[in-house]
Amino acid sequence: VRFAEGLTPLAVEVDGFGHAAGLRCSHADGSEVVLPARAVLVAAGTQPNTVLAREDGRIRLDGRYFQAVNDEGAPRRPIRALSKPEHADVLMHRTEEGRFVSFFGDLHPSFFGNVVKAMGSAKRGYPVVSRVLAQAPQRGIDGAALIARCQDELAVTVHAVNRLTPTIVEVVLRAPAQARAFAPGQFFRLQNYEMLAPRVADGTVLAMEGLAMTGAWTDPGRGLVSVIALEMGGSSDLCAMLRPGERVVLMGPTGTPTEIHADATVALVGGGLGNAVLFSIGAALRAAGSRVLYFAGYKALRDRYKVEEIERAADVIIWCCDEAPGFVPGRPQDRNFVGNIVEAMAAYASGQLGDPAIPLAEVAHIVAIGSDRMMAAVGAARHGVLAPHLRADHTAIGSINSPMQCMMKEVCAQCLQPQIDPATGARTVVFSCFNQDQALDRVDFPALAERLRQNGVQEKLTAQWIDRALRHLNARPALAAE
Prior knowledge:
Blueprint: E1 8-14, E2 20-26, E3 32-36, H1 51-56, E4 61-62, E5 65-66, E6 68-69, E7 75-76, E8 91-94, E9 100-102, H2 115-135, H3 143-154, E10 156-165, E11 168-174, H4 176-181, E12 187-192, E13 211-219, E14 224-230, E15 247-254, E16 265-271, H5 274-287, E17 291-298, H6 307-312, E18 316-321, E19 335-338, H7 341-349, E20 365-369, H8 372-381, E21 395-399, E22 416-420, E23 427-431, E24 437-439, H9 445-453, H10 456-475
Parallel strand pairs: 16-17, 16-20, 17-18, 18-19, 20-21
Antiparallel strand pairs: 1-2, 2-3, 4-5, 6-7, 8-9, 10-11, 10-15, 11-14, 12-13, 12-15, 13-14, 21-24, 22-23
């Protein structure tokens, strides 16, 4: 390990294949140097994550950190960067009922920096937590009943696995707490437990990586959550192997809910798996009094699923398919189009599909969810072929699913997505897992395409290995479990 002092990274140089070739840096005197590199690792997470304060609204900040408080809830100012302060001020919020929220490790101005300090914060802080718990008024809580309730509410099990198309699987989970918390547009992080994962004779454990999963629908009364996965090889193929009753991990719902406009005219533009996200969004829009014009696009006739749910989510549907003869509409106001989704929108707006029940010119908001190429095409067409048919003041967003890892909102930085201000050209970076709904005119789609391809080699190798493991597993079913 060597330290190069006084250098400021400017850019990653790439070769003809788009792979890292070097890191360009500047000296304090303004000169530049390129450090040869085939891999560039970025250490992120040096900023304390205070998303909770923004989302909760009651928790206060003290500069970059949460505001510390004493036992009465009065503000305290911990000593900065001292890992052994005289007083461990680890309380950051006191509710009206006398309950506290505490904070440790990198979130704390005294204990940030490394794992040892984080462990020290727990050692110094647990007496404070124990003290305020002992002082809290007794509410007659039955500890055993509380634990049983937590097990029932938070332990997630597979309810059913339904194959919707040859490449799309729906996993229905019993997750009461998540079902109540879900809002349209949010998503989940799903994975199985390694202890329960199938094993094959060569020692391969079919454990999933954390998968970002579309939240299709929920049934809070029954405590059910539906997530839908596209089998692209690798971990997504393992969703079909989940068994009813199996314990799994379901984190979320995460992400920011889609803005539901009331008493407006909204166009939903869905491509393939993106249509699963729009079920709940369309239903919420209609419940809020909005009219919904839905363009539902698919590559092949076999790719369509949940037709009744889409019909409930829209006043008018234009079914688009690249494969002839297309779909037969099930309602008199709906239409069929053979071709891509931008062509379908233009044909509908110009009257080629008949008199439009909801003119495209009345649309105030567009929500596009699908592949990066589809969303980029819709975004560009709004200023081209579709411009004569759209209101000048309409808004348009896309659900930007850049590569994700932790999905915990501004933590690991794997989901970073660049944006470009269309007026000034200024570049900024946002966390897609915090808010995947982003203005189509600001998204840097070429950068998104590069990000989605960056792990292509590893993903293809993983997919081939899992396919091999599944063939081996199916040939010798007795080895499917220990």
